[in-house]
Design a protein that fits this description.
The chain is an alpha+beta fold. It has 14 helices and 14 strands.
C-alpha cells in the first residue's frame, strides 16, 4: 500500500523495474510489489551487486516500518509470513525537481550516464551492456544502477578526499538465504534499536539505517525523451564509522577490518572467518535465534526446517581501482554450528582443515619455486597455475565437508592425495634429476606435516 500524491514521470512504487522469479517464471515488479508479494517471490534476478543493492533498499523500508527490537517481535513477523507496508509515493519519484529519489539537487559536474555502471578492467569494458546503447540508459536501468552505484562506487584516486569508496566497495557482503524473498529479507533483518533513517526520510546521518542507503555520491539523473544520457555528479558524504549489518569483518591485532576479496585466493578458503558469528551481524543473530527458547517454542515449521545457507557477494578491484570481476557464491552452514556444545569444536575443525591445506600449498610453492629448471620469470607463473589446480580440486570436497558428507579426517586425507598428485604432475612435466630430488623433499615435508613417514628411495 502507498500514499497517493498524484501521477509522476517515473515512480519506483508504480513502475515495474525489478526483475524477479516466481514459480520458475520471471516477471517485473515495482518496489512496493516486491515487498507486499515477497512471500510469493523466489528471488530477485539480476547482477549480484544489483540484487544486494535492491535488498538493502527493501531492508531499509522494513526497518523503518516494523522497528523490531526483540526476538519475540521478530518471530511473530516471521510466523505471519508476509509484509504489510506503507510507503509515501512522493518520496520515490526518480525525476522530482526538489527531492529526486536517492539523488541530490544543485549538483555541478556533468558526466555520461554510464559513469554509474561498473566497468571491468578499463573505461571501454562495460559489463552486461549492449554496445548499441552505449550512450543512454532506460529509466529502469538508471534506477537500478543509481542505487547500485551509491553502494558500490569505487574511488578512482586514493588522494581524492572528496570522492571515497562507497559503503560496500572492497568488502564482502554476507546474505542469509531463505526459500523465498520474504524469508531472505527476514533472515537479514536485525533486532535492536537502530538509529537513523532510510535515504527517502533522512534529515541527518546518525546510524545503521542511514548506512543501508548511504548517499556516497551526489548524483542527479537528467531525463531525455524516455532515456537518461547525462548525469550531474559529485562526491558525496563520508561514510559513518558504524559496522555495516551486511558486511563481514575480521579482527587482526585488536583492530577490526572489512574482510576483503583476493583475486588469487578463492573465497571458500576464508570460511574460518565467514562462519565466525562475531564477524557477521546477520549470522550472529541467526545463531542466537536458533538457541532462543521462546523462538524455538513458538516458531513455525518453516523456521525449524530451514535449510541454512548464506551467499557471499563482492568485487575484485585492482590496485589501480579497476574492477576485474564480481564474486557470488553460496555456502551451506553446518548444523553443528547451531549447537552451542559443538559450535567451537566445528569452527576449530574448519580452521584446522584450512590451515592444513594452506601448509601443503606453501610446501609445493617453497620446494619448487626457486629450483625448477626453467627461467626464473616463468617459475612463479607455472607454480601459480599448478596451485590454482590444487585449490580448485579441493573446493567441491570442502563444500561436501560443510554438508557433512564426510568428516575432517577424510578431507585432510584428500588434501594430501591431491597435493601428492600435483607434485607428481610437476615432476612429470618438468622432469630432470634435480626435480626428482625436489619431489622427494616435497614429499618429506608433506609427511612431516601429516605426521607420517616417507616411502621409497
Amino acid at each position: 500500500m502507498f500514499l497517493d500524491w498524484g501521477k509522476e514521470m517515473y515512480n519506483l512504487l508504480e513502475e515495474k523495474w525489478i526483475t524477479v522469479q516466481s514459480n520458475k517464471e520471471t516477471s517485473k515488479v515495482s518496489l512496493i510489489e516486491l515487498l507486499e508479494k515477497a512471500h510469493e517471490i523466489t528471488d530477485i534476478i539480476d547482477n549480484p551487486i544489483v540484487r544486494v543493492s535492491i535488498l538493502r533498499v527493501a531492508l531499509a523500508a522494513l526497518y523503518k516500518q516494523y522497528q523490531i527490537k526483540t526476538p519475540t517481535q521478530w518471530i511473530d513477523l516471521w510466523n505471519k509470513g508476509k509484509f504489510d507496508i506503507v510507503l509515501d509515493k512522493k518520496k520515490f519519484e526518480l525525476f522530482n525537481d526538489k527531492n529526486p529519489f536517492y539523488q541530490s539537487v544543485g549538483v555541478s559536474g556533468q558526466k555520461n550516464v554510464f559513469t554509474i555502471k561498473p566497468h571491468l578492467g578499463g573505461n571501454n569494458a562495460i559489463f552486461f551492456d549492449d554496445p548499441q546503447r552505449l550512450y543512454s540508459m532506460t529509466y529502469e536501468e538508471s534506477a537500478k544502477w543509481l542505487i547500485t552505484h551509491q553502494m558500490w562506487a569505487v574511488c578512482m584516486s586514493p588522494t581524492n578526499l572528496c570522492i571515497r569508496d562507497s559503503v560496500l566497495t572492497r568488502g564482502v557482503v554476507l546474505i542469509i538465504e531463505g526459500r523465498n524473498l520474504f524469508e531472505t529479507l527476514m533472515l537479514n533483518l536485525l533486532c535492536g534499536e537502530h538509529l537513523g533513517d532510510p535515504v527517502w526520510e533522512r534529515t541527518k546521518n546518525t546510524g545503521l539505517l542511514d548506512l543501508l542507503t548511504w548517499r556516497s555520491r551526489k548524483i542527479k539523473l537528467v531525463p531525455d525523451n524516455g532515456v537518461v544520457r547525462m548525469i550531474n555528479y559529485m562526491g558525496g558524504d563520508q561514510v559513518l564509522d558504524v559496522d555495516d549489518p551486511m558486511l563481514v569483518y575480521v579482527v587482526r591485532k585488536g583492530k577490526k577490518f572489512k574482510l576483503k576479496l583476493n583475486y588469487e585466493k578463492q573465497l571458500w578458503r576464508d570460511c574460518d572467518a565467514l562462519f565466525t558469528e562475531e564477524n557477521s551481524l546477520a549470522l550472529k543473530q541467526l545463531y542466537a535465534l536458533y538457541n532462543n527458547d521462546h523462538v524455538s517454542e513458538v516458531a513455525n515449521d518453516k523456521f525449524k526446517k530451514l535449510k541454512k545457507r548464506f551467499s557471499i557477494v563482492g568485487m575484485i578491484i585492482t590496485n589501480t581501482a579497476k574492477i576485474q570481476h564480481y564474486v557470488s557464491q553460496t555456502f551451506p552452514v553446518p548444523e553443528m554450528l547451531f549447537d552451542p556444545d559443538k559450535n567451537i569444536t566445528k569452527k576449530g575443525e574448519i580452521k584446522s582443515v584450512l590451515q592444513y591445506a594452506e601448509k601443503l600449498s606453501w610446501t609445493i610453492r617453497s620446494t619448487f619455486l626457486k629450483q625448477m629448471n626453467i627461467k626464473a620469470e616463468q617459475r612463479r607463473i607455472v607454480i601459480d597455475n599448478y596451485l590454482m589446480e590444487y585449490w580448485s580440486s579441493l573446493e567441491v570436497p570442502f563444500m561436501n565437508y560443510l554438508r557433512d558428507v564426510f568428516n575432517s579426517e577424510q578431507l585432510i586425507d584428500l588434501c594430501f592425495k591431491i597435493a601428492d598428485k600435483i607434485i607428481s604432475k610437476i615432476v612429470s612435466d618438468y622432469w630432470n634429476e634435480d626435480s626428482f630430488k625436489f619431489n622427494q623433499r616435497c614429499k618429506e615435508a608433506f609427511f612431516k606435516i601429516k605426521g607420517g613417514k616417507v616411502d621409497g628411495s
